[in-house]
Amino acid sequence: MRLVKIGIASVNTTVGAFQANTDRVLDLARKMAAEDVTLGVFPEQVIAGYPAEDLVQWQGFIDHQWPELERFAKETAALPLVSILGVGVAHQGVRLNCAAVVAGGKVLGLVPKEKLPTYNVFYEGRTFGHGQPGMAESHRGVPLGDYLFQFDFGTVAPEVCEDIWSADGPMRRRAYSGGELVVNLSASPFRLGFWETRRELIATRASDHQVTIAYANAVGSNDGLIFDGGGFINQNGRPVLETPRFQQGFTSAVVDLDRTLRLRTENTTWRVDREDWVTAGGKQVPTLDCTQAVKTERQKLTYPVPAHRSFFLPAPDTRRTARVALCEDILDALSLGVGDYFEKTRAFKLFGIALSGGRDSLLTLLIAHRYAKRARPDNPGSLIQAFYMPSPYSSQQTRDAAETIARELGVPFQVVSIEEAFEREKAAAQTMLGETKLTPITEQNIQARIRAQRMWNWSNSCGGLFLQTGNMSEKSVGYTTIGGDLMGALAVIANVPKTVVMYLLDYLQETTGYEGIRKVLAKPAGPELAHDQVGEEELMPFPILDACFYLHAGEKLTPSEMRTALTAMFPEVDAERLGGYVDRFVRLFHQSIYKWVQAPLSLHIGNLDLDRERALQLPVVTGSAWLRKA
């Protein structure tokens, strides 16, 4: 047996906080060594924080990373531990995103990332250069390139994040060259349902290439990107370990690397594929002999046996239901995003929410409170200030709902009427218009803008983080006010569809029993900017609205294609009415792009959202003839 204990770390970093980030890695490395871990795996760009975006273009930003890497090596010199961690280097005019191999007080090698994602929320091709197959260079006297590393426990093949997502990545040639343990350093953002995708991909790669894979992911939030952490160990397709998500720390497991080699000998397909690769002229990846760099201590390790003491019977099923998994993942991700933004910006003292008594502001409040319970468990409400700002159209029902949930959460609640200001602003606007009559929509917008102005005034004076509360569905069709409810310092649920907002609130009502949630849900959703407003009556049923958004913005279907899909999805709705909904959605969607670009920073939880700098990049000015059926 060749037993190896692998520690998978999730580290919450801040971009540019080089010393603090390294201190966190050092702390985990020492704890790993104290628990007899042989190999410690840390996330991508863990020294610099991720994503650094265009900061990578500053030489000073790159130069600050190497001294911290050397400090890490020096302070772990006495540990019988091999560490692999992410670092950026500047090499001959190119920035490289590398996995650094450290042991015995030295940086033993650097392996650059080869596959640079430049899609969705990623822009790495803009700033980093590609590692290359066969690359064999030196950086500051350290081997830099396409290398394997031989230690006294086995042969390690480091790689970085996207390299594992490509079927044409470096894993294949490194496995054929003798790599047994593939170590992938990742900073992969949270996306709904993506955990299962990661698990399946890693299992597939480990099986295809007959290797053990150790995968570590970043945790925490930087700007609007949320990293859920979590990691995996998979041996030749068999799951060994899944680590906790949404929290910093490490988890470890023991594997027998002799098993990886034995399974290769049994797998004739892998052997034949390797022979074909060699025959076709496949170039061997060189192996650096690091056996003298560190003597690992593995004598205390014991053979990995199932906790339930059976190799044949299934372990107890601890999986969550699909509903619980969806809701808890979203709530955990968004509360992590809110909390990290609050803490890492170092600009705010508390949260401020304009609580309307409606669904969106309620969910935003509950997410902020979820974070506050972790940050101040003794008095979470002290981190939040809620304001109810009634106009002539506000109902007693929504006021009661807002007051009730604030009381249940222990959140300070203040009523500040905008009626007088509303009348004053209407009069001023009418004076400016002269003979032109003030429109009903302008009256609605005036109310929203007064509320936003007051929230900004409060924020400026007390250091409050003004949370924007709008959802993705209504934002997609411009059912929001520039300078009003579109405003805020951070948009918490701007990428959460309205149907999901309501689903989450139903879940939270069931799990918490808050009376305030029940009261909010008892009234039809509407902005209360005019008499008897109901959102679905002014727009369309929210399930149809969200379906339109997904089909048009996500699947890129034209209006005629959308009608076909929606007819199958909603057979109970008249086809002509569905067609009207589609036309209305598409028209409003493209007319509203100019609003999105003025919206605040938003938290990302999926592959599809309306942050123009991150996901759906659409021109503000565009013709619409192409939308009509040819």
UniProtKB/TrEMBL annotation:
Which residues does the record give as L-glutamine binding sites?
119, 188
Q: What is its EC number?
A: 6.3.5.1
Give the protein's biological function. Answer: Catalyzes the ATP-dependent amidation of deamido-NAD to form NAD. Uses L-glutamine as a nitrogen source.
Q: Which GO terms describe its biological process?
A: NAD+ biosynthetic process
Q: Does the keyword Nucleus apply?
A: no
Q: What GO molecular function annotation could you give as one example from this UniProt entry?
A: glutaminase activity
Q: What is this protein called?
A: Glutamine-dependent NAD(+) synthetase
Task: Spell out the catalytic residues.
Answer: 44, 113, 161
Q: Which PROSITE patterns match?
A: CN_HYDROLASE (PS50263)
Source organism per UniProt:
Corallococcus coralloides (strain ATCC 25202 / DSM 2259 / NBRC 100086 / M2)
* Enzyme class, spelled out: ligase
Under which pathway is this protein filed? Cofactor biosynthesis; NAD(+) biosynthesis; NAD(+) from deamido-NAD(+) (L-Gln route): step 1/1
What Gene Ontology cellular component terms go with this record?
cytoplasm
Task: Report the PANTHER family cross-referenced here.
Answer: GLUTAMINE-DEPENDENT NAD(+) SYNTHETASE, NH 3 /GLUTAMINE-DEPENDENT NAD + SYNTHETASE
| Binding sites annotated in the UniProt record for deamido-NAD(+) | 445, 474, 595
Residue numbers binding ATP: 354-361, 469
This enzyme catalyses: deamido-NAD(+) + L-glutamine + ATP + H2O = L-glutamate + AMP + diphosphate + NAD(+) + H(+)
Keyword tags: ATP-binding, Ligase, NAD, Nucleotide-binding
> In what residue span(s) does the CN hydrolase domain sit?
4-257
NCBIfam families according to UniProt: nadE
